[in-house]
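Q: I'm writing up a methods section and want to include an example of the input and output format. Could you take the sequence below and give the corresponding predicted structure tokens, formatted cleanly so I can copy it straight into the document?
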Amino acid sequence: MQLVRTNLKQKLNLAQKLNLAEKRNLAQKLNLAQKRKQKLKSSTVAAVCVLVLMAGWQVAANAQNVSREELVDAYRQARANGTLGKGGVRGILQRKTTGGVGSGQSGDRRIDVAYGPGPLEKLDVYVPKQRSSQRMPIIVFFHGGGWRMGDKRQHDGKGALYALNNIVFVNANYGLAPQVVHPYQALDVAKAIKFTADHALEWGADPERIFLMGHSAGAQLVDLVATNQRFLKEVGVNPLNIKGVISLDTASLDLLQRISEESFEGQHVGKMIEQAFGKDPAMLKDGSPTLNIHKGVVYPKFLMICGERRRSAMKNHDEFARQLRNAGGQVLVKPVPLSHRDINLAAGDSRTDTFKWIKSFVETGKL
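A: Here is the clean output for your methods example:
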């Protein structure tokens, strides 16, 4: 009898526990359903707000005869220059028409000037509004994009910003892989530099104070033409007129080494290298800045800014710097705690150390 009572008591306790568990389970389901409902409601409200905002932006864009693509481009420029939110969409669009830094400040802007016959052989020129009595230095900039994509329009804000600081800024496109591959991409870069040197005096600039700047693949290309100087010589540019190179976060200074990396990044970039430079070791060597450094050659000064968390990039830069110094050249490598994208943005933001380093280098010629 006692055993029966014990069993009944155990069953009763078990039933109570199961009932409590069911209640908890039900409560959790209700709580989850409420959260989903709230999230859906928030998402719906956010989507409506975005649609209303986009509609408002498009109306403002249409009023100023600006396309949707130009509107998106203007937003990106404002974000890159730290001017997002100043004056709303009209302020952004107004800065778009003046180069990204404010009405009346950017000076003379010349768009899609052809420097060669190719469809992408075009550049934009930003000339300071207030020209100094002395000839101004020039930056010639080349975008990134894995040698196969990208466009100068993504960097309009940089042009206006540097022009505001009395630096003539040339923002150039170049042929892209797979239609244009090595050595013709490097030749496009050299031709853009040649055009700049030939027209510098028209802009109040000094053809003997040219600085090259590029990001990612664009950085690799400016590093290349400054070390493998046959490209400059082929188009008639005196390499001594290149006073400095600003290299923004490339990890492809030695293509033979880079293409053999087994890391995820190395394999990803390796495919891009193969598309733009091929697999021939001789061609890869010809396209490698580090492998084209030789004693007895005069090189421009190099300011190299790279992400400190990219180990391969750091090793590439350290080896490049070692080789250049052994050849008698000057180089300053600046590791920074920024992402690949943010290094590019920082170069177009006057509040950053990156911009200040570049500006000081171009103005003084000193590292």
